[in-house]
Amino acid sequence: MKNTTHFDAIIIGAGFGGMYMLKKLRDEQGLKVRVFDKAGGVGGTWYWNRYPGALSDTESFVYCYSWDKALLQDMHITTRYLTQPQILSYLEHVADRYQLRPDIQLNTGITAAHFNESSNTWEVMTDTGETHTAKFIVTALGLLSATNIPNIKGRDSFQGEWYHTGNWPEGVQFEGKRVGVIGTGSTGTQVITAIAPNVAHLTVFQRSPQYSVPVGNGPVTADYVANVKKNYDEIWEQVKSSVVAFGFKESTVPAMSVSEEERKAVFQKAWENGGGFRFMFETFCDIATDEQANLAAQNFIRSKIAEIVKDPEVARKLMPKDLYAKRPLCDSGYYATYNRPNVKLLDVKANPIAEITPKGVRTSDGVEHELDMLIFATGFDAVDGNYTKIDIRGRNGLSIKDHWKTGPTSYLGMTNANYPNMFMVLGPNGPFTNLPPSIETQVEWISELISEVNAKDLSTVEPTKAAEASWTKTCQDIAGMTLFPKAESWIFGANIPGKSNTVYFYMAGLGAYRQQLSAVKSEGYQGFLFQ
Ligand code: FAD
Ligand code: NA7
Fold first, then answer.
1. DSSP track, 494-523
2. Is the confidence at residue 301, as pLDDT, over 70?
3. Are 33 and 22 in contact (CB under 8 A)?
């Protein structure tokens, strides 16, 4: 065993969540903390997802930390949305500005974390052979981080270059190449649109077509930036009391309460303005909850696909027929990409992928599509995917995999019964929102709870089983009031064969979530056991 050190807290993950957690515990509470990340740099999502076209679809002014006014004033906002290099450079700046790097150990994966009941400490093992101990562990492992590379027959036989978008290397060259993309989710639509002009030929293997609206990216004016910076207090107050936390006020108008003409005008305005969450939540209040309202939105987007895509057969293949109830997408010209002569769309639901061959992909009709490069834009084992890769054991050696065998659960999205002093940032059944404000909410709450334990000289805190069961039921009931469970997507675990198809989010919004957290705290941390 090399390098055994005792820490007050060990944090796993150096993205938005882990870095802020380090700052809170080290700088405000004076704790001895170390962050571990298997990545070679800080930034989490934005370190790994370097594929062409990678962009946050949360607007720049709210895709950042809110906790330091000086940092907000110094933020360099030039475009309505931030690209991956811009976000990565922002997070690298945060690491430098607050001197976080000396306490972040990179290139170090955590393989196991076991709670020792006799010492009330966590023993944490790394893939570099170290074992450390800590009173507290915080898992900031990311909810869209464990890549999903489907086990398609012959996958490893492909002789060309292949990449998953969530583990994208520097320096990939496209010129003159025949490229295939599997997957047309948020990532697939971004990468397809970005690379189409630079490749010799692009074949898109589409299993499910997507509803997408324009993102509306572009430069912002000096006035826009000045206005944002002047009003940040109000902006964050609104964001933290809103539902989706995207920096706009959600509509309160039901779609069917206005005339068809007015409805179309509202959709048209939203289409011109851009933004997927804006289209779903700023237009009308019931697109995600009422089938008729949802149908109106579907029909509008389908009519746009028909207008944009010149070949009616291609347009037909691109039109989803199911509910508009996955994470709402937006794009920079996705549908128009299919008007390019070098882009071919294959419907692999109608004509499934039979196998990957050394030369490309063979579809069930027997055609081999020859490729120089294959891109898996096939998403993530979302939410609990990184948890089940670590051997996490709580009281009585109980493995988290067993604890979650019927689907992952939590109390308040952050804690589990029988896992004392373990806190999750963006764990299962946390808020479904623009994520930095939810991450901050959780980090601040965890930090206060740790401070409470230490101030009272206590050994452990953990939720009761009853509290965890009750929160799980709350999340199920809320999700059941929406249309989201009726669409198959990663939000409910439907994208991974064999994964529990269950509720993974608290869908009542950030404002309601924050109220729940304050209520729990003001009741003396109701639902928690202290020892
Ligand atoms: P992450 O940034 O995912 O960081 C987790 C870190 O944990 C990673 O660096 C990983 O290497 C590390 N880790 C995991 N397991 C281990 C282990 N066993 N040992 C050591 N280290 C480990 N959210 C939005 O709100 N708006 C958006 O527009 C948006 N766009 C996105 C676009 C893409 C392409 C993706 C993939 C995600 C997007 N997200 C978006 C979600 C995004 O993940 C969050 O906004 C945010 O970056 C999450 O931060 P985090 O710190 O919680 O986790
Ligand atoms: P998503 O949204 O899970 O999309 C993955 C895509 O890959 C989707 O089109 C899938 O089709 C497709 N897929 C997955 N497996 C296969 C196989 N075996 N064959 C063919 N096609 C397949 O992941 P993203 O990375 O795009 O986005 C995830 C989130 O990250 C996003 O919401 C942002 O928040 C950032 P399917 O729809 O399952 O039929």
1. TTSTTS--S--EETT-HHHHHHHHHHHHHT
2. yes
3. yes
The residue whose CA has the least distance to atom 36 of ligand 2 is 208
Domain count within the chain: 3
The strand pair at 131-139 and 422-424 is best described as parallel
Condensed to tens digits (0 to 9), the pLDDT of residues 117-158 reads 999 999 999 999 999 999 999 999 999 999 999 999 999 999
CATH number at residue 174: 3.50.50.60
Is the beta carbon of 17 within 6 A of some atom in ligand 2? no
The domain in which residue 461 lies consists of 6-146+382-530
pLDDT, position 256: 98
Contact 367, 167 (CB under 8 A): no
Q: Are residues 423 and 341 in the same domain?
A: no
Domain-embedded: residue 320: no
Q: Which residues line ligand 1 (CB under 6 A)?
A: 12-18, 36-39, 44-45, 47, 49, 54, 56-58, 63, 109-110, 140-142, 144-145, 166, 187, 386, 390, 425-426, 434-435, 439
- Identity of residue 230: K
Give the max Cα distance, the chain. Answer: 71
Which residue's alpha carbon is nearest to atom 12 within ligand 1?
A: 13
Angle at 82 between CA 329 and CA 487, to 5 degrees: 15
pLDDT score at 3: 66
- 288-to-48, 238, 252, 365, 527 alpha-carbon distances in Å: 31, 21, 13, 37, 31
Domain-embedded: residue 319: no
Which protein residue has the closest C-alpha to ligand 1 atom 40? 56
Which of 181, 369, 488, 495, when mutated, tests ligand 2's pocket best, judged by the most ligand atoms within 8 Å of its CB? 495
Q: What is the pLDDT of residue 498?
A: 87
Q: Are residues 128 and 229 in the same domain?
A: no
Q: How many CB atoms lie within 10 A of CB 70?
A: 8
| 151, 165, 187: residue to mutate for ligand 2 pocket, most atoms within 8 A of CB | 187
Please state the rounded mean pLDDT for residues 206-235. 98
List pLDDT tens digits, range 63-94.
Answer: 999 999 999 999 999 999 999 999 999 999 99
pTM more than 0.90: yes
